[in-house]
Amino acid sequence: MSKIKNKIKGIKSHPSYNKLLYWGKSISITALSQIVVQGLAFLCGILVIRLLPLEEYALYTLANTMLGSMTMLADVGVSNGVMAQGGKVWQNREKLGAVLMTGLYLRRRLAFWSLIVITPILFYLLMHNGASWFTAVLIVLSIIPAFYASLSDNLLEIVPKLHQDIYPLQKNQISVSIGRLVLSALLVFIFPWTFVAILASGIPRVIGNIKLRKIAYNFADESQKPDSIISKDLMTIVKRVLPSSVYFTFSGQISIWLISLFGTTMALAQVGALGRISLIFSLFGAIFGFLIIPRLARLPNEKHILLKKYLQTILFVLVFYTGLAIIISLLSTEILWVLGDKYSGLEYELTLSIIGFCVSTFAGVSFSFYSTRGWIIHPIIVILVDLSAVVSGVFIFPISNLKGVLEFNIYVASILCLMNFLYSLIKIKSIKI
């Protein structure tokens, strides 16, 4: 017994013990809360899939895709800039407040142009896919609450993430997820319409956004005004990111665009339903966003440290997602049963959808790494590489059916993944320290 106690004492006295204990607690707490959040989101998604008629779910998929495009167009690098700038002053409440207020100010300006560009496109695609004029207007109006909340959500989250004050953030996310599930269950069951489902999701986000502001302002001074110097630094990033961000606003959801324009309403609903399965993968993405990205942003600009941390992160992501993709592929029949009879027989398509999501996530990890360092690939290079992939993919794959579009998506994502990975390595190698 004494030998065992001595061994335990020896382990506790090891220099790495406290570090491992801290990471173990952080990951387990974050994982547990995200299991709840993503589990509730998954249930909400399945509920909407089952309650909405196939034609309505096709419109729901289209509206949510356009909401994501609007959010991207209202950001164009602002959140990356706030993370990069905030990582330098995260211990100073006034300076961090100035960074946050500047970021929010720029977001509001960009949101106006986002609405001007995306709203007419969404309206046209809704009408093209069978929505009446009145229904299209209701759907467009219903996305406003969620869009309003999205303007500040991820900027406000940066503050507690930098301070690793994760618990209040997770508590707020859980309450929002519960609100979405309850409202969806009550409203969509009675009114199985697209605009009702979108409102049921957007209203809890607005309430959660109000609570999120209180969490962020514990560490950032809300009385600070937008700073011209910070704004100039952020705009430097925005101007470099803007062309590629505008381009990727439209190409990032290329599978939805292609299906909505050249495919059928059924195929559009199917690709949206299969995409819901990717919420299973969002657990790790959330852990990565909470714990890893803020720490990568805070790392010193030293070559050997960055290279080691980057390769460790990439290896972990690769192993984790490959294993999870294999498991989901083996259980594809059982998973499709959860979606309902309308989506049965799509085992191969589900596997393709999951592979595409994994490759896109891998590319996103590299992008998150170098963007939080303030490194930006020249937009012309990004656009040319992606455009070449898209154009060649259109000729290689049959984009008028679901299988072809999913294979096309994997092809394009793989090329972007390789580009982001190589760029990260090149930038790390270029550091002289």
Automatic annotation (TrEMBL):
The chain crosses the membrane at residues 20-49, 110-126, 133-151, 181-203, 245-267, 273-293, 314-338, 350-369, 376-396, 408-426. Its main location: membrane. It is found in: Cell membrane. It is a multi-pass membrane protein. The keyword Metal-binding does not apply. It comes from the Bacteria. One of its GO terms (cellular component) is plasma membrane. InterPro entries: Poly_Biosynth_Transport. Keywords: Cell membrane, Membrane, Transmembrane, Transmembrane helix. The keyword Cell membrane applies. Signal peptide: none annotated. This is O-antigen/teichoic acid export membrane protein.
